[in-house]
């Protein structure tokens, strides 16, 4: 009877989601494009497939106002780190830096944002 109990515990343990590192923002490029801004954000996350992957990132003003969100529609198990862009982000006048947050499908939004200074001039 004991070997069955051990086997059951191993099978149940294998079905539990693995604790993974939160999505890590490794690079951000921001550039003014027309009436808005374009953000290229590079994320690293140990995606395991549809059950656990980095599924979004967002741009926020320093006061917490969300300025835009890029939804990531599929896992990137074999493409790490990966870069995706968001265009047409309207940044209020006078805002000189923004915060970028990343999200994964299991653990939610990262606790600490990455602060990015917006380039000025041309």
Structural domain count: 1
Helix percentage: 10-25%
Question: Termini distance?
Answer: 74 Å
**Number of separate strands:** 8
Show the helix and strand layout.
Blueprint: H1 2-15, E1 24-33, E2 36-44, E3 54-60, E4 66-71, E5 82-89, E6 97-104, E7 108-109, E8 114-117
Please explain how this structure is put together.
There is one protein chain. The chain has one helix at 2-15, and strands at 24-33, 36-44, 54-60, 66-71, 82-89, 97-104, 108-109, 114-117. The longest helix is centred in the N-terminal third of the chain and has 14 residues, at 2-15. The protein has a single domain, classed as Sandwich (Immunoglobulin-like). Strand 3 (54-60) and strand 4 (66-71) form a beta hairpin. It contains one helix and eight strands; from the N terminus they run H-E-E-E-E-E-E-E-E. With 122 residues, the chain is mostly beta strands. The strands form two sheets. Strands 3, 4, 6, 7 and 8 form a five-stranded antiparallel β-sheet that branches. Strands 1-2-5 form a three-stranded antiparallel β-sheet, with no helix packed on it.
